[in-house]
Design goal:
This protein is mostly helical and 486 residues long. It folds into three domains: 14-60; 98-119 and 132-309, Leucine-rich Repeat Variant (Alpha Horseshoe), CATH 1.25.10.10; 336-486. It is built from 28 helices and no strands. The chain has helices at residues 14-28, 32-45, 66-78, 84-95, 123-131, 134-145, 152-164, 168-176, 179-188, 194-208, 212-220, 223-231, 238-251, 264-275, 277-287, 294-307, 311-319, 322-332, 337-350, 354-362, 365-375, 380-394, 398-406, 409-419, 425-439, 445-449, 453-463, 465-478. Helix 1 (14-28) packs across helix 2 (32-45), helix 7 (152-164) packs parallel to helix 10 and helix 12 (223-231) runs antiparallel to helix 13 (238-251). It starts with 13 loop residues before the first helix and ends in an 8-residue tail after the last helix. This is Armadillo repeat-containing protein 6.
């Protein structure tokens, strides 16, 4: 029987929440903060979705909030009842106190309002701005400002729009408001400056995050194809590369759990087949000076990882020299943890292909991975990615497993299990790698057993049963040990 999708939670209205807070204050003599906390707990227990409720200002006049006032001011300016420039500045100023930290992602652009354009907003600010139709007003402002010789106001509108799109409900409404079509126009317009295109791409990336409909519209409209065309220019600026890679990665990532399926794989295949996406990314990777611009290089590598979604695409990248280029970058930037992690991640995805496994082995990837993981011995993310890459390379490849044994992989694996014992990601990859190495090569068992692998595997199972019990038992079994399920 097919598994039923969970029913969506009913959305709580602001009026119902305000009434509950007022009742707590009046009927139970609660202080305001206590009344709000109690109402939140009660509605959560009842299974309501509170994402559209302004909780901290329950019972207050939201229409008088500075953000609501600024939203009305922008609407008035669009009716020629005020200065659009001043209205944009007022909205920016009203949002600034509610900005959260910028997301931990490479290539965030600086904002004219004093906060990073990649910064999001608190839920309170997002709800008020959404109720005030700020996103729709900003789209209209962008259309009106498009084509002006001085793009400062258009840039400010785009950066404000990017910030508003940190909230899911605003992103959901973006496609209905013809936001994708506007982005496409800005990217394709001959008069658009490089700064405008970068800002437009950043808006597209923000809009696609967690919203399948936006991803599909960006691909179907030709917006992503337009970005790939721009990336082919030899002088494409680094900030455009960074923003464009963000869009490509978004549309090839399945991160919206609401629809029954995702087209992320279809998008990766379509963009590579009809728009040479993987080849364009390789051209870009070769142009980016990774030592001087590591953040941009990491974004390109992360995009390679999501676009290389099947054997055909991996082969195409490999045939053009992409795997060798990534391995060379790994060696050249071995001291940079962020670039190393990104290189390992891209190669790990590519190594699902049997052709890539063998090419990597011939190019000396096994000792190179052992070296970089050892160089960053305290970095859990590097260890996890490195062990994962080695596991993919050695899967169904006993010849490569033998190379791994000669290169010191057993020592690396067991040292990583000891060093990162408290975090499940590394022990899990270690269990998988041990099993992969010895399953078809029983002669490699002593390399692990003589170094104390049994005790470490059993400890990993006990410490992390959800993540390591199954793979740990499998590794113990393939090592030839009894009681592997204990």
């Amino acid at each position: 029987m097919a598994q039923a999708w969970p029913k969506a939670k009913p959305k709580l209205t602001q009026e119902a929440f305000d009434e509950a807070v007022a009742s707590n204050i009046e009927d139970f003599d609660m202080a305001r903060d206590e009344a709000i906390k109690s109402a939140i707990e009660e509605f959560n227990v009842q299974g309501y979705d509170l994402s559209s409720v302004v909780t901290e200002m329950a019972g207050s006049d939201l229409d008088s909030h500075p953000i609501a006032v600024a939203c009305r001011g922008l609407k008035d300016a669009l009716k020629d009842e005020g200065s659009l420039k001043e209205a944009l500045a007022a909205l920016s100023a009203s949002l600034l106190p509610s900005c959260t930290d910028a997301p931990a992602d490479e290539g965030a652009q600086a904002s004219t309002s004093g906060a990073p354009a990649g910064a999001g907003l608190t839920q309170e600010a997002s709800v008020i701005a959404h109720k005030g139709e700020a996103m729709q007003s900003l789209l209209e402002a962008c259309r009106r400002l498009q084509g002006q010789e001085q793009p400062e106001e258009l840039l400010q509108a785009l950066r404000l729009l990017q910030r508003l799109l940190s909230w899911l409900e605003t992103r959901d409404a973006f496609t209905d408001a013809k936001g994708v079509e506007l982005i496409h126009e800005l990217l394709k317009a001959e008069g658009s400056s490089g700064e405008v295109r970068v800002a437009a791409a950043a808006v597209a990336e923000a809009a696609a995050r967690g919203v399948e409909e936006a991803k599909c519209r960006l691909v179907d409209s030709g917006t992503v194809a337009a970005l790939l065309q721009l990336l082919q220019a030899p002088d494409a600026p680094l900030d455009l590369i960074s923003a464009s890679c963000g869009v490509l990665r978004s549309v090839t990532t399945a991160d919206d759990e609401r629809p029954p399926s995702s087209k992320a794989f279809v998008h990766a295949r379509l963009l590579s087949k009809h728009h040479a996406a993987i080849r364009v990314l390789l051209q870009v990777l070769r142009r980016v000076p990774a030592a001087q611009e590591p953040a941009t290089a990491c974004r390109v590598l992360a995009t390679v990882k999501t676009v290389a979604a099947n054997e055909e695409i991996c082969r195409e990248f490999t045939d053009d020299g992409g795997v060798v280029a990534c391995l060379q970058l790994l060696r050249e930037c071995s001291g940079r943890r962020d670039v190393v992690r990104a290189c390992l991640g891209a190669l790990r995805q590519l190594a699902h292909s049997d052709t890539v496994k063998k090419l990597l082995a011939e190019a000396g990837a096994v000792p190179a991975v052992v070296a970089v993981v050892g160089e960053h011995e305290g970095a859990e993310d590097v260890a996890e990615a490195g062990l994962g890459l080695l596991g993919n390379m050695m899967l169904r490849q006993p010849e490569i497993a033998a190379l791994g044994a000669e290169a010191g992989v057993p020592d690396l694996v067991l040292e990583a299990m000891q060093r990162h014992a408290a975090r499940p990601a590394v022990p899990r990859q270690a269990c998988l790698l041990i099993r992969i190495m010895v399953a078809r090569s029983p002669e490699l068992r002593p390399a692990y057993l003589e170094r104390g692998a049994e005790a470490l595997l059993r400890a990993a199972k006990a410490a992390h049963p959800n993540q390591c019990k199954d793979v740990g038992s499998a590794a113990l079994r393939d090592l030839g040990l009894d009681n592997y399920n204990d």
